[in-house]
Protein 1
Amino acid sequence: MRTEPDRRERASRAPSGRVEYFDVLRCIAILAVVMIHAAITEWHEIPVESARWDELTWINSALRFSVPIFFMISGALFLDPAKPVSLRVLYRRRIPRLLVAYAVWSSAYAALDVYGPGGSGDLGDFAAAAVTGHFHLWFLLALIGLNIGTPILRRIAEDRRIAWYFVALAVPFAGVLPLLTGIPVFGELLGDVLGSMRFDLVLGYAGYFLLGHLLHTATPSRGALVGWSVAALVGIGVTYAGTSAVSRDAGATDERFFDFTTLNVAVVSVVVFCAAKAWGDAHRLSPRWGRAIGFVAGASFGVYLVHPFFLWALRQYGISTEIASPTVGVVLVTLLACALSLIASALLRLVPRVRGVLA
């Protein structure tokens, strides 16, 4: 890849100053997130030997790029050397906003789980659920961690060779070796070695943060895009095959190959990001499409936070992926949940002091 000229980066921006392909990526990623969560409930409940389970596994395998894309966009924005970030801004604005969002939404979902239909009604259960958070709120905690580490990551990003070295280290230590620990005998020995080594520097999502910066400021050749696209198809196949193998061996769903840091997921995420950037370098949205995409992208944070409630509400009325074939059912439920979540997010963003915090 070669470094991207500033001129082309400016050309990819909308008149509002937003990077258009980031908005397109946000729309794609939030749709994929909701689709994954629409499919995952039934996926966990049905036999792993069934044809429906297979189809749902393919859907989940193809869409794991969703959350990494959000991390990569954040990295491209937060590690931009032209936009200094002080500790004062981090600890007085960004991190408190994420903490407030986590506290409010975690408490809201805890109340629904504990005091809603079928809940225990126990105050202790509510307190525990409010602290640990709903299943999807881990994303906020991960963002808090990345914000805390941003000053360090910015220094790494100043030297592209060091930044690529960091990403290269993340490939084996975060993306490959953890999967191998499941192999009988060898995996146990490897797990012992890694546990003793405690090389945690490149674990987690910091690699995606840096990748977002590196890919945003580079231009992949057409040949590289083709090669990475082939690798992405292989990655999806590995995600499906690996998940099927370990799940059927255990007799229950096993999500280790679904992990967002695995290499099979990372290659797909890189292709989606680079393809969107290549499109953004060559095209501009029309004013009408720009407003529509910008609206959805701006509301994507709120959609992420609120969509599990609407998936739950739809199930209460018998609307789940089981209403049709897996693909059709997942698409219908996703569109309904996205529409309701988009409305809710847009309304929340109209409330003073809520915009950018709770939605």
Note: The two ends are 36 Å apart (CA to CA).
Protein 2
Amino acid sequence: MNETRLGIVGLGVMGTRMLNVAVGHPDFTVVRASDITPADPGVPFTTNADDVVSASDVDAVYIATPPKFHADLAVAALRAGKAVFCEKPLAVSLRDGQRMLDAATESGLANAVNFALSDRDAVRHIAGQDLGTVRGVDIRLQFPRWPRGWQASATWLAGREQGGFVREVLSHFVYLTDRLAGPPEPVWTTVDYQGDGSEVAARGLLRAGDVPVHVSAMAELSGPELYEWIIWGTRRSFLLRNWAQLFVSEEGGQWQPVAVSDHGSEATRLSLFAQAIRGTATPDLADFASGWRVQRAIEAFHGF
């Protein structure tokens, strides 16, 4: 099987992580990488992203820049005949998100958004269960500090223009809701900001068809970092805590742990992207269409 020649744009935390995975991945050969900061990543490097997205020796592009740059890069790559794997959120402007979706649809090429929960074993387990009638979804997030320590170098995350935990983290759980309960439409949303920075609190009610989706998220507080997503069914309910810990409640009982593997990573999602390039899409990899639905819900918190 021929390896796909991959170009990587953006070598921050996620771009570097994906580069390290892709270099040893059996489905890909990393032929180019770019970042605005000069670097020596061990593959041909440029500070000009256009040299990657337009290169004749690149078959697919992974985009890991700050989100306001996603649209121009993705549209250029798709129009140049290259499949695109993009970090989330899809974009911060609804117009840009629509441009990306339109370009992907028109090109017919493989397109994907890197939602970390898309192929987690816990999520795939829930998808295969009979919940009965779904009565609701609850999303609760809390961050003692924002940005989180490991993101300190990504200074844009602390800003209001394209950062904040609503776009960076809540989007993962809105994606999960979209996948397992249906497309979430905003009913009401509210956000509190701290000075000129990103949000410190976000609350809202979304509705996935007949299913109410309650959101409560806070930052800059005394308390543990926490990620919880609950889907309430009449037959059984599931709690996903801190990305990978899964619990089930049946017949009104207490939460009981569910044994699931650690499956789901940049490596496995790269494999699914390679599969999509070969013409076989999978629900375990988010595409631009699902990324666009998530973006519409997320940007409602910011009044767009």
Note: The radius of gyration is 19 Å.
